[in-house]
Amino acid sequence: MKKLQFSPKQRQVLEWWREGGYDAVICDGAARSGKTFALSVSFFLWAMARFHRQRFGLCAASINGARRSLLGQARPVLEGLGFRWEERVSRNEVAVRGGGRENLFYLYGGRDEGSFASIQGVTLAGVLLDEAALMPRSFVEQACARCSVRGGKLWFSCNPAGPEHWFYKEWICRAGEKNALYLHFSMRDNPALSPRVRARYERMFRGTFYRRYVLGEWTAAEGLVYDFFRREDMRDAPEGPFSQWRISCDYGTRNPASFGLWGRMDGVWYRVREFYYDGRERGRQKTDGEYAADLKKLAGGRCIETVIVDPSAASFIETLRREGWRTRKADNRVLEGIRRTAEALKSGKIVICRGCEAAAREFALYRWAENGRDEVKKESDHAMDDIRYFVMALDSGGGSAAAYVERAAF
Fold first, then answer.
1. Scanning 13, 132, 273, 281, which has the fewest C-beta atoms within 10 Å of its C-beta?
2. What is the dihedral of CA 62, 67, 68, 69, to 10 degrees?
């Protein structure tokens, strides 16, 4: 492995624990700013330098996210330094050995309010919480409470949200009171990003997303959610064979139902057709069986790999399963889904094709609530929800950790 180059801010992350004065470190700021990479490497180095036969927590919004973002980025570096690594996937744990020491690292997912139970009762010497602002407060506080071993420390990373977010108020604004080192990152703190790549990310966002993910500001959401989307940017569906087909569904009885047909070609997913039905406007509600027939018509005889469905639509999911459809309950994390959808649209990972009028109409209407909190107005959001469900079901991996380390090496 080539010698890694770290920015001054990343070096602070790698070395802060050597002095021993702080109880925690908080790294926030722009997306792609190198904070998670430096934090995960530093966390393992600290654990292996200071402890033997202790347990540690690696937390993200999901266990797969922890495995990808934290283990994936740190592993090549640690193995390059001579550490031995044994991952026990079925138990969501990793044993790391080196320098005559061995420690155990557990993976946790802080997806919803019930997640705190997964970490309850364990004793940890340290915990790393990646994207802490996306986790429920109950989970974060339970994880912090588990760190009762002498010399234990807390490690946080996050992209900014709104200024009323509890993590901003309780940890960032009160970092001094909590004896925490606070480090704010910009994209310039990541040596792996060239000026050209930084400029591309700066072009990807506008409005709230730009201020948060490019400037790294904790700013209130306002205006249109996808303020960069333009109807004139919609394209005709490409001709020729698609390699995969999926359908995403936001189910409604009293509220509208929205289904999207997605085809994959050359690594891009196209929303080629859609179904939208408003029972209130039409004056008649449809049954689960009728909606299943509408979905079959939308599929048009294509081989549908999976149908991603609103997780609250239990009866509709069961109807589809009985009719032979392969279904998947959607991940309904709203803010994370909005962020990923924005990135997918701007990067061209997904394309909304001409003819998808319900989606086009809602993109022009879907707005943040005017209450200072990160909430969207619950109106004109049904196609927006089914698109968000689709994006959250995509493989969100951004390339191998080895490739990341290669890009960071100079």
1. 281
2. 80
- Both tokens of 219, joined, read 């700013």
Q: Could you read off the pLDDT of 84-123 as tens digits, one per residue?
A: 999 999 999 999 999 999 999 999 998 878 888 889 889 9
Burial class from Cβ neighbours inside 10 Å (0-12, 13-18, 19+) for residue 248 reads buried
Residue 400, pLDDT score: 32
> What is d(CA 1, CA 37) in angstroms, rounded to the nearest whole number?
16
- Alpha-carbon gap, residue 183 to 158, rounded angstroms: 11
pLDDT of residue 280: 83
Q: What would the 3-class secondary structure string for the chain be?
A: CCCECCCHHHHHHHHHHHHCCCCEEEEEECCCCCHHHHHHHHHHHHHHHHCCCCEEEEEECCHHHHHHHHHHHHHHHHHHCCCEEEEEHHHCEEEEEECCEEEEEEEEECCCHHHHHHHCCCCECEEEECCHHHCCHHHHHHHHHCECCCCCEEEEEECCCCCCCHHHHHHHCCCCCCCEEEEEECHHHCCCCCHHHHHHHHHHCCHHHHHHHHCCCCCCCCCECCCCCCHHHCECCCCCCCCEEEEEEECCCCCCEEEEEEEEECCEEEEEEEEEECHHHHCCCCCHHHHHHHHHHHHCCCCCCEEEECCCCHHHHHHHHHCCCCEEECCCCHHHHHHHHHHHHHHCCEEEECCCHHHHHHHCCCEECCCCCCCECCCCCHHHHHHHHHHHHCCCCCCCHHHHHHHHEC
Given this model, what pLDDT does residue 114 score?
Answer: 80
For 285-337, what is each residue's pLDDT tens digit?
899 999 999 999 999 999 999 999 999 999 999 999 999 999 999 999 898 89
Question: Tell me: the pLDDT tens digits for 270-279?
Answer: 999 999 999 8
The predicted model scores a pTM of 0.76
